[in-house]
Design brief:
Layout: E1 3-8, H1 16-31, E2 35-40, H2 46-57, H3 63-87, E3 92-95, E4 102-104, E5 113-116, H4 119-126, E6 130-134, E7 137-139, E8 145-147, H5 153-163, E9 168-173, E10 194-196, H6 197-205, H7 213-221, E11 226-230, E12 238-241, E13 254-270, H8 275-285, E14 293-297, E15 302-310, H9 311-323, H10 325-328, E16 332-345, H11 355-365, E17 372-376, E18 379-385, H12 389-399
Bound molecules: adenosine-5'-diphosphate, aspartic acid and magnesium ion.
Aspartic acid (ASP) binds at residues 9-10, 41-42, 47, 73, 135-136, 150-153.
InterPro entries: AceGlu_kinase-like_sf, ACT-like_dom_sf, ACT_Aspartokinase, ACT_dom, AKii-LysC-BS, Asp/Glu/Uridylate_kinase, Asp_kin_monofn, Asp_kinase
Catalytic activity: L-aspartate + ATP = 4-phospho-L-aspartate + ADP
GO molecular function: aspartate kinase activity; ATP binding
Length: 410
């Protein structure tokens, strides 16, 4: 007998019919003699609709009340799925995140899980019940309701799998696995049989929405193999594990992209030793996430500094900079919005110094201007014009032969 955690995302539970389908997939695992814990998201676009209702009331809704509102979405799904299981003659029980023992930081909207007291889930499994848990939610030490950030149900599932020492964690979604790039945008995208935790973590952090980055982090830390697969089709999915099988010495495994990026440039910073740290400490204290950073000296012995942010954070970043202008000692700030980040990821890059050069060549040949660059051992990210994002991904996908068989090392 194995202990299995199954997670079903929003589209997979988008209607009552789909919830019945999910119940059947759960029952199959139970019928195979397994103990099953199921984690579900809110139905279809429920979370988006709740966000939009809140915005119709306030431009800056209270973060506490947002969490109170958004967690209702998952609560609808757990009860309906549990009813469907009971209707089919199975013993099942639903739990909200706090009932399931998900203890988080005291942060609204993007809390990290601190601990899981899985005793209640365990007791129900002992009673031979299927346990259905609401994803994306928990509570802090004061009993306040918190959420884990958009897409956070994946993290609930993996964290529960870790806490229960589960044998498997299967993430059911609306695609048949992890692809070389988002199959909704790029027709030639190909499903991967396997991918390493590190590569998946980079892709997820760089915009591949198929998995919540913290879910991959958890899976790596606790060495839980994940399978991403379809809730509708029967075919096997993509395994995320420590060492993915190298497909013919693959250099680039996948391409991630993200729109709504803004470049902020600060002109005329004094060239003192501490000026960089002061700027970024000030931004960090105000919880502004900064991504790619480029520094350049000027002839006047001052420094110009550019960084990229998500466009939604730009206004807050500008306010922070303006409020601290005197202390930071810069001349002026300019922004360029309407940008996107396109990144190639693959563990084969570590030993292949020419990959970034090849990426830039492809961009140049396609007539795409690269505005910012950042690299790590297993990724190269570029910032380009948002209008050219899909074209950039298509060209790179083709050039690195990701659609057919992988590019072979020279
Ligand atoms: P769920 O509601 O099941 O959590 P999500 O919408 O969060 O589903 O994630 C699935 C979506 O992720 C797919 O529909 C696809 O558009 C997107 N996606 C982005 N990058 C990739 C990729 N590399 N492989 C597969 N899907 C991807
Ligand atoms: N319902 C939440 C969201 O839409 C969490 C999730 O789906 O994972 O972001
Ligand atoms: Mg998701």
């Amino acid at each position: 007998m194995a202990l299995i955690v199954q997670k079903f995302g929003g589209t997979s539970v988008g209607s009552v019919e789909k919830i019945k389908n999910v119940a059947n997939r759960v029952i199959e695992e139970a019928e195979n003699g397994n103990e099953v814990v199921v984690v579900v998201s809110a139905m279809g676009k429920t979370t988006d609709q709740l966000v939009s209702m809140a915005r119709d009331i306030s431009g800056t809704p209270s973060k506490r009340e947002m969490d109170m509102l958004l967690t209702t979405g998952e609560q609808i799904t757990i009860s309906l799925l549990t009813m469907a299981l009971i209707e089919e003659g199975y013993e099942a029980i639903s739990y909200t995140g706090w009932q399931a023992g998900m203890q988080t930081e005291s942060v609204h909207g993007n809390a990290r899980i601190l601990n899981i007291d899985a005793s209640r889930i365990q007791a129900q499994l002992q009673e031979k019940k299927i346990v259905v848990v609401a994803g994306f939610q928990g509570s802090d030490a004061n009993g306040e309701i918190t959420t884990l950030g958009r897409g956070g149900s994946d993290t609930t599932a993996v964290a529960i799998a870790a806490a229960l020492n589960a044998d498997r964690c299967d993430i059911y979604t609306d695609v048949t696995g992890v692809f070389t790039t988002d199959p909704r945008y790029i027709k030639g995208a190909r499903k991967l049989q396997s991918i390493s935790y590190d590569e998946m973590l980079e892709l997820a952090n760089l915009g591949a929405g198929v998995l919540h980055p913290r879910a991959v982090e958890y899976a790596k830390n606790y060495q839980i193999p994940l399978e991403v697969r379809s809730s509708m089709e029967r075919e096997s999915g993509t395994i995320i594990e420590e060492e993915a099988t190298m497909e013919e010495n693959l250099i680039v495994r996948g391409i991630a992209f993200e729109d709504s990026i803004t470049r902020v440039t600060i002109y005329g910073l004094p060239q003192s030793l501490g000026s960089l740290s002061t700027i970024f400490t000030t931004l960090a204290k105000n919880r502004i996430n900064v991504d790619i950073i480029i520094q350049s000296m000027t002839a006047e012995d001052t420094t110009n500094l550019s960084f990229s942010t998500k466009s939604e954070d730009t206004e807050a970043a500008l306010i922070v900079l303006e409020n601290n202008k005197e202390q930071l000692g810069f001349d002026r700030v300019e922004t360029e919005s309407g940008l996107a980040k396109v990144s190639i990821v693959g563990s084969g890059m570590v030993s292949n110094p020419g990959v970034a050069a090849e990426m830039f060549e492809v961009m140049a040949n396609t007539g795409i201007q690269v505005k910012m660059v950042s690299t790590s051992e297993i990724k190269v990210s570029t910032v380009v014009n948002e209008k050219e994002m899909v074209k950039a991904v298509e060209s790179l996908h083709e050039a690195f032969k990701l659609g057919q068989h992988a590019k072979v090392l020279a």
